[in-house]
């Protein structure tokens, strides 16, 4: 970059907001307005909006269930509700949040909307399949939701045998069938992304010009394809076991309940990366845009995505350190789990190196991104405690685990989801949200999250087990603190829902590129026309071609 | 594409693709990706069956001796023949021989149907010999060996899942044959035959894996 050398450390921004483009008839939101045009659409952008509305609904349901759980734990003796109600509440929370919010969250919404835009394509490779995946998702998810609400399933989201097969008297069977169906929607989405990224890239868009968001979704899609079928088999066997007592998870017939855990975690550990990798992709887009600086170590971040997606298939045993697994197996799984830290750290260091000496602007998406980085580090490092065999013995199945994965799932994925939602909101809707409200909410969520979950690390360290409706009285203070934090967190979630919806009608009209960001999605209008680009987009010479570049990048690209 | 297509045979381009070659590449990669997921689905099941066999060798062999080896073997031949007729349908589609293609597709569906009939007869014979341990109302012939019960139940899960794939495959094939018999089909949708053929061969392949894992244990 010859130009970048002369501008030193300051970023160039456009002095005037470019003209808005929302008035044009051709954009995808205003092309047609009948219900039919939404429910039978094959436009990836509209399908993304369908997903966005649905998963927001599931998020609200899951959050309400979490509220019930935190309410129950305000008192130590379980006086607020019966133990059965408590079990059902945490099952609804887990099932809805994991299967119907976190797994589809970023891929099915942002991935669906942005991958074709980012690679310069008119749509995903299989638009009808894309719509089908939404219907499959809704059918399975609503079926399960009705089951867990009416029948009150009490197994937790993991459906461990033999509780789920022999002992639970609740509607486990319909819940399992629904979750199995939802799996097919994941497979179809992953398949569509893999094929699209392989075959639909615009001329000149080579693999190493792809945004990290696309790399992250490619890695995620591979996990969708290679792990989801195994959970389908596990769930089919679980359904057969519960309905017909086939014996596969029952020691009385030569089966083994731990076998279910192996099959379950062979999917569900990689599924953690289905939830995390897309968030990493979002952060890798936000950080360079708000630092106005080229992403540091682009290739390393891309390889780290694939690295995480590969290593994650070989660490499932760390969920079973205390379940009678052999010492050798535990040792190997422990060592491999430590290896996960390497690509994770590569990403964190590259984000922080991108921020270093950048021209920072702390708008809402960047606040979420910085929150993400901090919380992800804390969540990731506590994962190393859990991967250590000796320490795991003490904190296995305690609130330490609960806090750890909420730091990754909420502090990581949900913050990335909200950051991405604000970052691309102008692109999705053609409107700007309220920046002051955005910043206030981002900080409320950060505060509320930490007040809710940090005490749980301490509770777990002190030995409070998870999934119990009662606890010793000396834990009450920390539990009340955690529940109080949950109310702050709830307020932080409610604000965005209000001001984002408000902005749909009353927000300032958005220009094509409000953040002065790089990437093909910002080249087209906000909101984009039905076929994404009116003229074929010009693929840039290098990815993340921001005004500021680190010394190594300048040397490399001359 | 391994070989050139005859005149008047090809694919109509969908508007979101830039070229026919891109559309074909996407379809081919898509079906292979789908087949990999299907392979994993069955692999997990076969793995569980193999684990059972390793953990309980005597009970597994005793149970496998009750399976109808010769019906299974015949069915293997039937499915391999159906893959042959499907391959012929693909060749005919490339050459533009529409009538021959439709007949080959009908033959494929008929062989698939024959497989299901034989399989159904086998299930009936199993029922007759009290080899349906998952039915709580009917006593099991090998009740004294619990692991035999497990293996036989896994046999039903695996073969029913395969039969479900085959049934879906036949339904799709008949629907496509009905469309393929109309004029102009090969000019617009020759690709469908190629893509579908891969799925049919895959169903065949799964049976070729299932047969030794479930039946040949008793030889």
Automatic annotation (TrEMBL), chain A:
Domain of life: Bacteria
Keyword Membrane found: yes
Domain Cytochrome oxidase subunit I profile: 38-543
UniProt-annotated stretches for the region Disordered: 1-20
Pfam families according to UniProt: COX1
Topology with respect to the bilayer: Multi-pass membrane protein
Main location: membrane
Basic and acidic residues bias (residue ranges): 11-20
InterPro entries in the cross-refs: Cyt_c_oxase-like_su1_dom, Cyt_c_oxase-like_su1_sf, Cyt_C_Oxase_1, Cyt_c_Oxase_su1_BS
UniProt key word Metal-binding: yes
Membrane-crossing segments per the record: 48-72, 92-119, 131-151, 171-195, 215-239, 259-283, 295-316, 328-346, 367-391, 397-425, 437-458, 478-502
Alphabetical keyword list: Electron transport, Heme, Iron, Membrane, Metal-binding, Respiratory chain, Transmembrane, Transmembrane helix, Transport
Localization (cell): Membrane
Family: Belongs to the heme-copper respiratory oxidase family.
Protein name according to UniProt: Cbb3-type cytochrome c oxidase subunit I
Organismal lineage: Bacteria, Pseudomonadati, Pseudomonadota, Alphaproteobacteria, Hyphomicrobiales
From TrEMBL, chain B:
Protein location: Cell membrane; Membrane
Gene3D superfamilies, A to Z: Cytochrome c oxidase, subunit III, four-helix bundle
Protein's UniProt keywords contain Transmembrane: yes
Membrane protein topology class: Multi-pass membrane protein
Keyword Transmembrane helix appears in the UniProt entry: yes
The Heme-copper oxidase subunit III family profile domain, residue ranges: 29-219
Alphabetized UniProt keyword annotations: Membrane, Transmembrane, Transmembrane helix
Segments crossing the lipid bilayer: 29-49, 69-90, 102-121, 154-175, 196-217
InterPro entries: Cyt_c/ubiquinol_Oxase_su3, Cyt_c_oxidase-like_su3, Cyt_c_oxidase_su3-like_sf, Cyt_c_oxidase_su3_a-hlx
PANTHER family xrefs: CYTOCHROME C OXIDASE SUBUNIT III (PTHR11403), NITRIC OXIDE REDUCTASE SUBUNIT E (PTHR11403:SF6)
Family classification: Belongs to the cytochrome c oxidase subunit 3 family.
Protein name, entry field: Cytochrome c oxidase subunit 3
Organism the protein comes from: Methylobacterium longum
Source species taxonomy: Bacteria, Pseudomonadati, Pseudomonadota, Alphaproteobacteria, Hyphomicrobiales
């Amino acid at each position: 970059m010859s130009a970048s050398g002369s501008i030193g450390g300051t970023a160039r921004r456009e002095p005037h907001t470019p003209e808005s483009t929302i008035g044009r008839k051709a954009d995808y939101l205003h092309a047609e307005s009948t219900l039919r045009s939404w429910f039978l659409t094959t436009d990836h952008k509209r399908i993304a909006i369908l997903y966005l509305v649905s998963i927001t609904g599931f998020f609200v349901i899951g959050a309400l269930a979490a509220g019930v759980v935190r309410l129950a734990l305000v008192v130590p003796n379980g006086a607020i509700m019966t133990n059965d109600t408590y079990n059902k509440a945490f099952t609804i929370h887990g099932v809805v949040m994991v299967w119907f919010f976190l797994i589809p969250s970023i891929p099915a919404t942002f991935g669906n909307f942005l991958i074709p835009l980012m690679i310069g394509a008119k749509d995903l490779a299989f638009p009808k399949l894309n719509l089908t995946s939404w219907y499959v998702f809704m059918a399975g998810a609503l079926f399960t939701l009705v089951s867990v609400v009416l029948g009150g399933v009490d197994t937790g989201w993991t459906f461990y045998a033999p509780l789920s097969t022999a002992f639970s008297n609740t509607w486990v069977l319909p819940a399992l069938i629904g979750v199995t169906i939802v799996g097919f929607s994941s497979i179809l989405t992953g398949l569509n992304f893999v094929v699209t990224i392989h075959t639909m890239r615009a001329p000149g868009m080579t693999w190493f010009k792809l945004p990290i968001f696309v790399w992250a979704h490619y890695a995620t899609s591979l996990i969708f394809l290679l792990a989801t079928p195994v959970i389908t088999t596990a769930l089919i066997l679980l359904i057969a076991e519960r309905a017909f007592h086939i014996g596969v998870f029952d020691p009385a017939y030569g089966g083994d309940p731990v076998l279910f855990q192996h099959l379950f975690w062979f999917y569900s550990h990689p599924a953690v990366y289905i939830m995390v990798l897309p968030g990493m992709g979002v952060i890798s887009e936000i950080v360079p845009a708000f630092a106005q600086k080229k992403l540091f170590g682009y290739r390393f971040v891309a390889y780290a995505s694939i690295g995480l997606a590969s290593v994650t298939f070989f660490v499932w045993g760390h969920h079973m350190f205390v379940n009678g697994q052999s010492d050798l197996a535990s040792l190997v799984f422990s060592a491999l789990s430590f290896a996960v830290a390497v690509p994770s750290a590569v990403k964190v260091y590259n984000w922080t190196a991108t921020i270093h000496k950048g021209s920072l602007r702390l708008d809402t998406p960047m606040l979420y991104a910085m929150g993400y980085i901090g919380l992800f580090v804390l969540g990731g490092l506590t994962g190393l405690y859990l991967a250590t065999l000796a320490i795991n013995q003490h904190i296995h199945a305690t609130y330490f685990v609960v806090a750890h994965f909420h730091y990754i799932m909420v502090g990581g994925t949900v913050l990335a989801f909200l950051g991405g939602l604000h970052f691309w909101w102008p692109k999705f809707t053609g409107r700007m949200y309220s920046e002051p409200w955005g910043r206030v909410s981002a900080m409320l969520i950060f505060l509320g999250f930490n007040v809710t979950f940090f005490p749980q690390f301490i509770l777990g360290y002190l030995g409070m087990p998870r999934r119990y409706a009662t606890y010793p009285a000396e834990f009450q203070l920390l539990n009340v603190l955690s529940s109080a934090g949950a109310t702050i967190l709830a307020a932080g979630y409610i604000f965005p829902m209000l001001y984002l919806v408000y902005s749909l009608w009353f927000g300032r009209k958005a220009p094509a590129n409000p953040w002065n960001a790089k990437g093909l999605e910002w080249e087209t209008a906000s909101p984009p026309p039905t076929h994404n680009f009116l003229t074929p987009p010009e693929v840039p010479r290098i990815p993340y071609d921001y005004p500021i570049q680190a010394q190594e990048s300048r040397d490399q690209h001359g | 594409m391994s070989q050139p297509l005859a005149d008047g045979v090809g694919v109509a381009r969908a508007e979101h693709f830039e070229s026919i070659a891109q559309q074909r590449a996407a379809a081919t990669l898509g079906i292979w990706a789908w087949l990999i997921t299907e392979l994993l689905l069955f692999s997990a099941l076969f793995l569980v069956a193999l684990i059972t066999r390793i953990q309980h060798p005597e009970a597994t062999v005793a149970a496998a001796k009750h399976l109808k080896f010769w019906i299974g073997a015949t069915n293997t031949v039937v499915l391999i023949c159906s893959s042959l007729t499907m391959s012929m349908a693909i060749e005919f589609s490339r050459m533009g021989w529409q009538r021959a293609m439709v007949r080959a597709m009908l033959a494929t569906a008929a062989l698939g149907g024959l497989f299901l009939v034989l399989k159904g007869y086998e299930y009936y014979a199993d029922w007759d010999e009290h080899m349906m341990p998952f039915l709580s109302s009917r006593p099991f012939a090998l009740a004294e060996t619990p692991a035999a019960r497990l293996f036989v139940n896994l046999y039903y899960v695996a073969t029913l899942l395969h039969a479900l794939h085959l049934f879906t495959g036949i339904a799709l094939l008949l629907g496509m044959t009905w469309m393929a018999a109309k004029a102009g089909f090969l000019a617009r949708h020759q690709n469908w035959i190629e893509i579908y053929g891969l799925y049919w061969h895959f169903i065949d392949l799964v049976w070729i894996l299932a047969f030794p894992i479930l039946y040949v244990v008793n030889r």
